[in-house]
Amino acid sequence: MKYLKWFRMVARPVRWMLAASVFIQLCQVFIALTYVYISKALVDIATGDCSSMLWILGEGHSQREGLILYSCALVGFILLRIALQSVINYIENKADVKISNRLRFREFSNLLRLQSDFRAKYHSGDMVNRLQTDVNTISSAVSRCIPNLIGAVLKFGTAFIYLLVLEPKLAWVLVFVVPFGIFGGRFVMRRIRNLTKDVREGDSRVQSHVQETMQHLSIIKTLEYIPNTSAELENMQEDYYSKVMKRTRFTIMARVLTGLAFSLGYAIAFLWGVHGIFLGTVTYGLMTAFLQLVGQIQRPLMEMSDQLPTLFHCTASIDRLEEIDALPKEQEDEPVMVEGIAGIKVTDLEFTYQDGTEKVLEGFSHDFTPGSRTAIVGETGVGKSTLIKLLLALLQPDKGSIEIYGSEGGEVKASSAGRCNLVYVPQGNSLFSGSVRDNLLMGDPDADEQRLKDVLHIAAADFVLDLEKGLDTQCFEAGGGLSEGQAQRIAIARALLRPGTLLLLDEFSSALDPETENTLLERLTSAEVGKTMIFITHRERIADFCDNILKLK
How far is residue 414's CA from residue 434's CA, in Å, rounded to a whole number? Predict the structure, then answer.
């Protein structure tokens, strides 16, 4: 029932497309049965039995005319079948893209709303793999597999009824023989589902390794770790290969069982027809109909056996996406902007990471008053960056409270609602692929040219205007094409475009030379900026520009 609910949810936007696909397949059923009848009639007319011709055309037509007319009809139905299959392919492709886009957007939106500590359990490469491979598997199953499975059932049922009319005993013999292969394969399919999940996880590990290697390529080169990294990938690929081949063996076993039953069914129909011709109870045309109807019965069953592994693969993919859906989401509230310059008051704060045993912060209290400038210093691991995440409500404290208040009124707890009052500049390079203008407009999409130039000046990033393409200069992945210091200053300019008045800067000037850092601090701490500033830093120079120095232990 869980998987049926998923199929209904995924198929809802394209249900009319899927219904059209099933209807066209129903038309194909009619065409296939008519094709069988025409083939039988052609053979009968060619061998001198013109009863089929008389039944359709009436008397007064020669054998040659009958052959010509039936041959034209045969060609017409072949062309019609090809045309209808082309329409089905078009509908399936359209539905596939719509489903995958919608489902990927849904899961991507869920990822964006997860609590920030989910990466402690799931690698980003694994998440990307789920958004690609698993989403594509589900969309393909819903847009192609399920309609084709319904069509196969219709084809099988009508072909069986037709054969039942022509030769009841043969029809019942085939129905009892062929399902043995299907049921035999079904027991094997149960194992395939678990193997598919293992294959997906192996594929995710490979992708995660490649992605992380590309992100830290310079470190790998300087550590001369390339051979080791390549060896790790090779081991992962060998593990992935063994899992794929194990699943392949089970899939082949299922298909062999099905194939044996189908071959036996065809042999029974052939020998039945030969025996009937020998006794004079079966015409050549009727034997042709037997063989084609056996194909019409077996082909849908073969299609069903091909679709079943896809459905089992799909259930494994649904389980993997459900793991994302089950992760705790951040509560979303309407933004609440305080009046005037924001301050933030922390009272008796305690925090311990889920997998940790020691408290990172304990009994911490401080009032970052509006307009103040505070430097937070301390040794690595004492909780400086953790405190920033708590202020941003990216983490939730175990105990204590965090209140954001305005110099002219208003108050809100640290949460998604209060986050609009804060502006964050993280450590290192935080630019996105695109132009400098694109990165700046992330701070305020409505900012005009003059405002962009103003914040670049405050952030000591005037160099952008001297570049050949100015604001339209392209940044590559992780700010490639710019120095670390240039990227840091552009990130600060982007933050200054945000409406919040409480500025959190985490080692924001680590890549700057003393002269540039001094210019930046002078401009940033000037009265015109009008912001409360909290600096996470190891640099003594920054403390000279602050009102308070807060040392964490």
Answer: 32
Neighbours of 68 (CB within 10 A): 12
Nearest to 498 by CA among 392, 400, 413: 392
Tell me phi and psi for residue 368, to 5 degrees.
-85, 90
Which residues are within 8 A (CB) of 329 and not within 5 positions of it... i.e. 6 or more apart?
Answer: 110, 113, 114, 115
The residues facing 213 across adjacent strands are none
Give me the average pLDDT of each 10-residue run along the chain (553 residues): 81 87 86 81 72 54 73 87 89 89 85 68 74 84 83 79 80 69 56 74 80 69 71 86 84 72 75 78 76 72 68 80 79 84 90 76 87 84 82 85 89 86 82 83 87 89 86 73 83 88 84 83 76 83 82 78
Same fold, 2-326 and 342-551: no
Distance CA 321, CA 138 (A): 10
Distance from C-alpha of 480 to C-alpha of 29, rounded to nearest angstrom: 58
The model's pTM: 0.69
* CATH class as words, domain 2-326: mainly alpha
8 A C-beta contact, residue 549 and residue 375: yes
Q: How far apart (Å, rounded) are the C-alpha atoms in residues 481 and 460?
A: 18
CATH number belonging to domain 342-551: 3.40.50.300
Hey, is 34 helix, strand or coil? helix
What residues does each domain of the chain span?
2-326, 342-551
